[in-house]
Design goal:
It is found in: Membrane. This is Wd-40 repeat protein. By secondary structure, this protein is an alpha+beta fold. Helices cover 38% and strands 23% of the residues. An eight-stranded mixed beta sheet has the order 32-31-30-29-33-34-35-36, with no helix packed on it. Strands 37-38-39-40-44-45-46 form a seven-stranded mixed beta sheet, with no helix packed on it. A five-stranded mixed beta sheet has the order 6-7-8-9-13.
């Protein structure tokens, strides 16, 4: 019997290629996969079809002859014969051909044949028919057919089987064996079919050679199905070498490098994994009437009145005993021993009656014992011993309701470590052999007690218990003590594979289901839909010896009874779907999006579902061919006009996912014109009908968004973001944007639409989150989740003990809304980067969004505000001591006059030195604390420390106070001491202003002051230039005369005079002393100076300050959040590694609880006139929306009434139709319905309702026009303010 099982043919020529692939696997790309899934990239490689060498494998085949020029005509690969046949000629002589037979493994020459007198355009043809190799070759006008063995065994050419004679020597183009009686030959561009009369091809030999003349002539035909498949790779058909149907490979010669042989596998991963092959005996397909039975992995069938035993594992067959008694005895041997089948004396050994091994009964199990097997009563140990379980389990303290509910249980390393027993319906008890103790798993819910468990596995690392029963498989969670999944089927229809972090269950009913575990819970479920069902075939038998071992399945046809054909399938772990040699690794797209909980793989697509959702979230189109891969490569090389024309004709095929390209957006990720054209085409398509458009081109590759961000292509970034927001607006796809949020902010991309979408935020509407509560406080809490939708079960964990519960039922309640911020990479992975880019951003719009505000609030409340408050309180100690010191020193040094005997005497009062020293010590200790902090900042930030202006004030303050302390005790010059005091006072209050930013009430004032000085910098420079101008004019006019009022600063007197003019303080005493001409000029210049400096410039300053104030007030909340972001950045820079890894400080997800429609929340973004406009727009919109909803509800109610009346009329007419005859019924019925409907519409207010709806449409249009006008006005106002 012949079976198509895995080929044993070795291919050493490909070893180098495989090694190079394994080396490339060592270079790991940055991927989003968590550590639980890293084994996928460690053990498997995703093919990059954008590289031709990824699909095409090659090896160098050097063919040369010593000192002669050789031209190769063709190479024929005879894989099943382990041969390579090379046809060639010497020195340009095409009519004389040489044929070399070369060993495929060793490349040694086995035989050379010379052929003369053939057309130079002809070639030899090799065909296989009924497992016999045939060769067609030409000599003159004759074509001969002979067996390959005859050629190799050096028989004469006259020993051919068939001779075909043609009229003239023309090119021999093609030959094909149709069946045992018909042969097709293409000769001189004509196709001939020769029919063998009487004798089949198998029966022809040298003794009964056949000679043929032309019988029939058909049209020219040179295209065959396999060649079409070959043309998907290359257009050079003449380079085809061999189609290996066993290994599903096509071999061909490289068109450019003739010495290189290429091959590719034309089978897909799914078809290869679920490869079903016919069972054969004597070269004919085996039928159900020949089937006898199946025992374990042994398939037994009848052949020529004999029993044939086939080992499905190895494909080895043996004849069974002729005597039925002996045959049955041999089956008993096979049931109890596998080694006996490979015994050379199998039939002799199995004639003897099987003698079971005697086991000694023992009472205990030690930690060194090994469990061999179990039956209904006993546990069998090594050393031919056994333990009766019912007696042994009495040693435990647990209660057992029934017997025979035990089996062997494996550990995570597939070792027999435990004995499993389902003691009660809610308790599982197991005995740990290594630790010599009983333990239990108490289930939350009671499960039906199944009597006969077969085997079990306890994986404490992944957190599950798997139990295989005779009629089902159950998986329990060790973490929450609940049943995860129950899969029905008999034991013969299930198989289990347990590796890494997954459980794979193959079931006739459920197909192939793979459960992936992460943090001891099910993280992902992949289902290969109806994988084990085939059209017109039924699963007949199935066998898996143990977990993780091959599963053998036997199928039979459904259309016939005893004549139904039988087929077999060998099934292994789903990891075979990662095989890179086959086309289309559909398993990789299942891991592209981490938050996909359920994945369904079909032959044409991969569907993604979120946890707890029945509606599909998105899907990949994965039905690809080599022709499509070829077109993906070629289309990117075309001009834009040709590309757009091609996409308009057939864009659907470019929406399919091809690894290395992605889809059409991946192909043209650098072509804005084509992307815009694609966007227009997709805009008219339904969103639900489109596959996933934006994704990574490979699991470790980049998406079009990644590419455009890395290349700073802002227009393409905006376009791709709009595609994601329109077609992939779901939290599942946020990982595409999440990892790039910081880069998008850095490039100043407008993210308002993104932050308002469903991608970065999830509104929690689960029933466990109450929508109304007595406590209206706003809470922002961090939480660690594996998947965002797990938040639905975490209410108590998050808010337990943090909300005030009302005792009185009459207390008012408020509506509460909950949100989950879905930015795990931005918050958790890029811990410090988000605040850095926000603090550096000039776009205040980022700080107006709920998401950014919530993140800043969380960071502020968690670790920033308390940090700065503590430092502020410490600084207040310095301020109190310093202020006391200043006042005490000032009043202590004050000069006093005492009267003695009527005379006044001058007395200097010296301050108390102890008080002065004490205040200095207190202040110095505080400043030393801040000095350490500043030094830590310098060590961490290095040169970045000097980029912040506040740091200069901080360090200068410390240095200035140190100088003040030294000078006060060492220098007698009071003037220098006064100057240093003034400097310290200024710097002390500057630091006080810094700390005041902690409080929202002061924050915007400090920010406004800083903004005012920033806005006035150019104006002040120009103002000083004007002061300098008028000061020099006055200096010349008054001839630098000294003014007593400016004694001490006489050099600057006239510049101060000009400044006093600008402030409205006029000095006019010296004007009257001028000459007649100069006095006129002086007054004219004075008037000009007053107009310029006092009226114009002072009003300019007021205007600039007012504008700065308005701008700060308009974005009051945004500015306060920006200030907080600066302080958060400074705080985070001092974090060590443990702080950065802390889940308390940097949780992957943030939950926001806030009262619905809070005025404080809604009203904080805009202030002043803009706030009033915004409020009016919002109010008008709400009123209009309410009115529209009410009117539409009236329309719907009226339509519902009309529909009910119509249903009543139909029922009445149906009842009348049973009484009246059918004659003329249709006409009467139509007339009656029309009358009733007219009456119903006349009785209703339909016409008025229609008028009302039309009026409503007009109102809506007017409202839209008003809103557009207000929007444009606001835009103009904001643009003017920004200018």
């Amino acid at each position: 019997m012949d079976m198509n099982i895995d080929s044993d043919i070795k291919q050493p020529l490909l070893d180098v290629d495989k090694n190079s692939q394994s080396q490339s696997n060592g270079v790991k790309c940055k991927t989003h996969l968590s550590k639980e899934y890293q084994w996928i990239l460690d053990n498997h490689r995703e093919v990059d079809y954008s590289k031709n060498e990824e699909r095409i494998k090659n090896f160098t085949f050097k063919f040369e002859k010593a000192e002669r020029k050789v031209d190769i005509v063709q190479i024929i690969m005879l894989i099943h014969r382990d041969l390579i046949l090379v046809e060639y000629y010497y020195d340009g002589n095409r009519n004389t051909r040489q044929f070399d037979f070369i060993n495929f493994q060793t490349l040694e020459l086995k035989k050379t044949i010379c052929q003369n007198k053939s057309d130079y355009r002809s070639r030899i043809f090799h065909k296989v028919f009924n497992d016999v190799d045939y060769l067609f070759y030409q000599v003159d006008q004759f074509v001969y057919l002979m067996k390959l063995e005859d050629s190799i065994e050096q028989r004469e050419a006259e020993q051919h089987l068939i001779e075909f004679e043609f009229d003239g020597c023309y090119p021999f183009v093609y030959a094909y064996i149709i069946d045992e009686f018909n042969i097709m030959i293409t000769y001189n561009d004509y196709t001939f079919i020769f029919k063998i009369d009487g004798t089949s091809l198998d029966q022809i030999n040298q003794s009964n050679q056949k000679n043929f003349q032309i019988r029939d002539m058909f049209k020219n035909s040179k295209t065959f199905e396999t060649i079409d498949l070959f043309q998907n790779i290359t257009d050079e058909v003449e380079d085809l070498i061999e189609i290996d149907t066993i290994n599903k490979r096509i071999y061909y010669r490289d068109h450019q490098l003739k010495a290189q042989v290429n091959h590719f596998n034309y089978q897909t991963n799914i078809s290869a994994y679920y490869n079903i092959v016919p069972l054969q005996k004597q070269k004919q397909q085996l039928r159900i009437k020949d089937f006898d039975r199946m025992i374990k992995n042994y398939f037994i069938y009848n052949q020529d009145q004999k029993k044939i035993i086939l080992d499905l594992t190895t494909g080895i067959t043996k004849e069974g005993q002729e005597d039925m008694f002996n045959f049955n005895n041999s089956l008993v041997h096979l049931l109890n021993s596998d080694e006996i089948f490979y015994n050379e004396n199998f039939n002799e050994v199995t004639k003897r009656e099987y003698q079971p091994i005697e086991h000694d009964l023992v009472n205990d199990i030690s930690s060194q014992d090994i469990i061999m097997k179990n039956d209904d009563y006993y546990i069998y140990l090594n050393g031919n011993r056994k333990v009766k379980w019912d007696d042994f389990k009495q040693k435990s303290e647990f209660k057992f309701n029934k017997s025979s509910t035990f089996c062997i249980m494996y550990n995570q390393f597939n070792e027999t470590q435990y004995i499993f027993d389902q003691a009660t319906e809610s308790q599982i008890v197991y005995f740990d052999i290594q630790n010599q103790k009983f333990d239990s798993i108490d289930l939350v819910e009671e499960e039906c007690l199944t009597i006969y468990p077969v085997k079990a596995m306890l994986n404490e690392l992944q957190g599950y218990l798997l139990v295989k029963y005779y009629n089902q498989i159950r998986i329990f969670s060790l973490k929450n003590k609940k049943l995860i999944k129950e899969i029905p089927n008999t034991i013969d229809e299930n198989s289990v594979f347990i590796k890494n972090n997954y459980i794979q269950i193959n079931s006739k009913i459920a197909g192939t289901t793979i459960f992936f575990f992460k943090n001891q819970v099910v993280d992902k479920i992949i289902t290969i839909n109806r994988a084990l069902e085939f059209e017109n075939l039924n699963l007949y038998e199935s066998y898996q010896r143990d977990f993780n071992q091959q599963t053998f399945l036997i199928y039979k046809g459904t259309d016939k009874d005893d004549e139904s054909e039988m087929y077999s399938m060998t099934l292994n772990s789903f990891e075979e779907l990662f095989n890179e040699e086959y086309l289309n690794q559909v398993i990789f797209p299942a891991f592209h999006f981490d938050n996909a909980y359920k994945v369904i793989i079909n032959s044409s697509n991969v569907q993604l579902y979120m946890e707890g959702q029945q509606e599909m979230t998105g899907h990949f189109l994965t039905d690809i061919t080599d022709q499509l891969i070829k077109e993906y490569r070629e289309v990117s090389q075309m001009s834009n006009e040709v590309i757009i024309r091609e996409l308009q004709l057939s864009i659907d095929k470019y929406l399919k996912f091809v690894a290395g390209f992605g889809n059409v957006f991946g192909i043209f990720q650098n072509n804005l014109i084509v992307l815009q054209s694609i966007t227009k085409q997709l805009s008219v398509r339904e969103t639900q009908s489109l596959p996933i458009l934006i994704c990574q081109n490979r699991i470790s590759g980049e998406s079009p968004l990644d590419f455009s961000i890395n290349n700073n292509q802002q227009k393409i970034i905006n376009l791709i973001l709009s595609i994601i927001l329109k077609y992939q607006n779901n939290i599942l796809f946020n990982q595409l944007v999440d990892k790039n949020v910081c880069d998008l902010i850095k490039q100043q991309i407008d993210l308002q639409e993104y932050f308002k979408s469903k991608l970065p935020i999830y509104e929690i509407l689960h029933q466990s989150f109450p929508s109304q509560h007595h406590d209206d406080s706003e809470l922002i809490e961090g939480i660690n989740l594996d998947k965002p939708l797990q938040i639905n079960e975490k209410y108590n964990e998050i808010f337990s003990g943090k909300l005030e519960e009302s005792i009185d039922c009459n207390d008012p309640v408020v509506s509460i809304e909950y949100y989950l911020i879905n930015l795990p990479v931005t918050i958790r992975t890029n811990q410090q980067m988000l605040m850095n880019v926000l603090s550096e951003s000039e776009k205040s719009e980022y700080f107006e969004d709920l998401i950014i505000q919530s993140i800043i609030k969380f960071k502020w409340n968690t670790y920033t505000k308390s940090f700065y408050q503590n430092r502020f309180f410490i600084y207040l100690i310095f301020m109190a001591s310093f202020i006391f010191d200043i006042f005490y020193s000032a009043y202590a040094y004050q000069n006093t006059f005492e009267t003695k005997d009527g005379e006044q005497q001058h007395v200097n009062q010296e301050p108390n030195m102890q008080v002065k020293v004490l205040t200095k010590i207190i202040c110095s200790i505080v400043l030393f604390y801040f000095l350490i902090y500043e030094l830590r900042q310098i060590r961490v930030q290095k040169l970045e420390y000097f980029a912040d202006g506040w740091n200069y004030f901080d360090f200068s303050h410390i240095l200035a106070y140190a100088a003040f302390c030294v000078l006060e005790f060492t220098v007698q010059n009071q003037e220098s001491l006064i100057l240093i005091k003034i400097l310290v006072i200024i710097l002390s209050f500057m630091k006080l202003f810094f700390f005041l930013r902690i409080y929202d009430g002061f924050s915007f004032l400090v920010q406004m002051m800083a903004g005012v000085f920033k806005d006035l910098k150019y104006f002040m420079m120009f103002f000083l230039i004007i002061i300098l101008q008028f000061g020099m004019i006055f200096l010349v006019l008054f001839k630098a005369q000294e003014i007593p009022e400016y004694n001490g600063v006489n050099k600057l007197a006239y510049f101060l005079m000009a400044f006093r003019i600008s402030s409205g303080d006029f000095y006019l005493d010296e004007y009257q002393n001028q000459g007649e001409v100069l006095v006129i000029i002086s007054w004219i210049i004075w008037l000009i100076a007053v107009m310029t400096l006092n009226i114009v410039f002072m009003n300019f300053i007021i205007a600039v300050i007012s504008e700065s104030y308005d701008r700060v007030m308009q974005k009051l909340v945004a500015e306060s959040y920006k200030v907080k972001s600066h302080m958060i950045v400074e705080r985070e820079k001092l974090f060590d590694q443990s702080d950065l890894e802390s889940l308390e400080y940097f949780p992957p997800y943030i939950v926001v609880r806030r009262p619905l429609n809070s005025e404080e929340i809604e009203g904080g973004l805009w202030q002043g006139f803009i706030k009033e406009i915004n409020t009016n727009i919002t109010t008008a919109t709400v009123l209009s929306k309410t009115e529209i909803i009410q009117n539409l509800q009236c329309v719907q109610n009226q339509n519902q009434q009309n529909r009910q009346q119509l249903d009543v009329l139909i029922e009445q007419n149906q009842s009348q139709s049973q009484i009246t005859s059918n004659e003329g019924f249709d006409e009467k019925f139509t007339k009656m319905i029309k009358q009733q409907l007219d009456q119903a519409f006349e009785n209703s207010d339909f016409n008025s309702m229609k008028t009302e709806v039309n009026g409503l449409n007009t109102k809506v249009l007017r409202i839209q026009d008003d809103i557009e006008f207000i929007k444009s006005s606001l835009t103009q106002i904001l643009q003017k303010q920004n200018q």
